[in-house]
């Protein structure tokens, strides 16, 4: 493990020598500078873990040095402890305001200085460990996501191909029965459509370029999403649309919008499970979102189903995470959230007070206001 490196900056040689001797006895590597410009040059040559910086220096004082360090991304995180003869409250506030983390007053107490230095070095070490841990967690999550997607793709496509092959075998064996051939061919077509849907969903997740948008009436977009849901599931008269913004136009991408909300409606409809109850109503409500910086549309997709499965609550938006057993599902929420975020919005899921689940989707009214292109 490398010894911590400290830069001591003071125009008084004796102060630098005293601090250097004290700190080096504790195994700390000490660099020295005798002016503000020397300090900036030393930091540019090799970043220290901590800077002890005299406030009162000719030409460029410690306040100016600290201000310049704070103005640069590569040096902003270096902690600075000011050394000053000023013990006033105003002087300390001025130093803290420009980014100093602590103060040491002259005449210097070496033991107190060492204690303050060691405290800040512990903070530096903890911060580095946190940054390293976060990096490793991101890498582990990325690897786990890639593994989950790969495994999910293989599992879903293998199952669907098994369905296709099974029905093709039936078609071959019933070649002399046109009605049976037609029914089995329709089953094959549905399975192939599932395969195509998975491929399209995966393709939409890796798109990095800005999607073209233009104004669409919200009512037309919602009706298109409902029609797509009905076509894909065969369900009808399921959705209750309560649109209080009938004449509102939003900047959107029609394919992304319709596919995302068709997936949300499908997820809500399937939340009722295999119940024979005919009342599998999905309610869609629109409103302007509150508490956001730019004009944003809020669309709520509500169901009265089983609610969020506790077993997958923390992984709801992971690819192929699903409580359903239907072949080829498990990408809808992942794709919908990805698409909405790509458009500058977001998607969250919550339990309803009286049972069921609500998906809350946010979509900016005007794309140019979101900073996404």
UniProtKB/TrEMBL annotation:
It is an enzyme of class 2 (transferase). The keyword Ribosomal protein does not apply. The modification 4-aspartylphosphate is found at residue 54. The keyword Phosphoprotein applies. Its EC number is 2.7.13.3. GO terms for molecular function: DNA binding; phosphorelay sensor kinase activity. CDD domains: HisKA. Pfam families: HATPase_c, Response_reg. It catalyses: ATP + protein L-histidine = ADP + protein N-phospho-L-histidine. Residues 152-367 form the Histidine kinase domain. The lineage of its organism: Bacteria, Pseudomonadati, Verrucomicrobiota, Opitutia, Opitutales. PROSITE patterns: HIS_KIN, RESPONSE_REGULATORY. Residues 5-121 form the Response regulatory domain. This is histidine kinase. InterPro entries: CheY-like_superfamily, HATPase_C_sf, HATPase_dom, His_kinase_dom, HisK_dim/P_dom, HisK_dim/P_sf, Sig_transdc_His_kin-like_C, Sig_transdc_resp-reg_receiver. Keywords: DNA-binding, Kinase, Phosphoprotein, Transcription, Transcription regulation, Transferase, Two-component regulatory system. Gene3D superfamilies: 1.10.287.130, 3.40.50.2300, Histidine kinase-like ATPase, C-terminal domain (3.30.565.10).
């Amino acid at each position: 493990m490398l010894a911590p490196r400290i830069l001591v900056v003071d125009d008084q040689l004796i102060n630098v020598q005293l601090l250097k001797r004290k700190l080096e006895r504790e195994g700390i590597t000490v660099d020295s500078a005798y002016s503000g410009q020397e300090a900036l040059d030393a930091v540019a040559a090799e970043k220290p873990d901590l800077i002890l910086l005299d406030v009162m220096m000719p030409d460029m004082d410690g306040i100016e040095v600290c201000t310049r360090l704070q103005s640069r991304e590569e040096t902003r995180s270096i902690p600075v402890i000011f050394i000053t003869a000023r013990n006033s409250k105003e002087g300390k506030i001025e130093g803290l305001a420009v980014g100093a983390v602590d103060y040491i007053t002259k005449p210097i107490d070496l033991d107190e200085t060492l204690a303050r230095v060691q405290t800040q070095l512990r903070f530096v070490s903890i911060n580095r460990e946190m940054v390293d841990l976060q990096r490793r967690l991101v890498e582990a999550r990325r690897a786990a996501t890639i593994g989950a997607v790969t495994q999910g793709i293989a599992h879903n496509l293998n199952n669907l191909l098994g369905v296709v092959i099974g029905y093709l075998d039936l078609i071959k064996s019933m070649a002399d029965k046109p009605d049976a051939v037609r029914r089995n061919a329709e089953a094959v077509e549905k399975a192939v459509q599932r395969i195509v849907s998975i491929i399209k969903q995966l393709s939409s997740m890796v798109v990095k370029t800005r999607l073209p948008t233009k104004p669409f009436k919200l009512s037309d977009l919602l009706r298109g999403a409902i029609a797509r849901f009905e076509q894909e599931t065969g369900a009808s008269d399921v959705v209750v649309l309560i649109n209080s913004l009938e004449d509102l136009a939003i900047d959107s991408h029609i394919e992304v919008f319709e596919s995302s909300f068709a997936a949300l409606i499908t997820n809500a409809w399937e939340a009722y499970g295999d119940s024979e109850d005919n009342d599998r109503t999905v309610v869609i409500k629109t409103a302007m979102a509150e508490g956001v910086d730019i004009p944003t549309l809020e669309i709520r997709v509500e169901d009265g189903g089983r609610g969020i499965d506790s077993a997958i609550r923390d992984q709801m938006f992971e690819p192929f995470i699903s409580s359903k057993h239907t072949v080829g599902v498990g990408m809808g929420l992942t794709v919908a959230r990805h698409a909405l975020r790509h458009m500058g919005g977001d998607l969250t899921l919550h339990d309803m007070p009286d049972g069921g689940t609500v998906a809350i989707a946010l979509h900016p009214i005007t794309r140019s206001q979101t900073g996404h292109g």
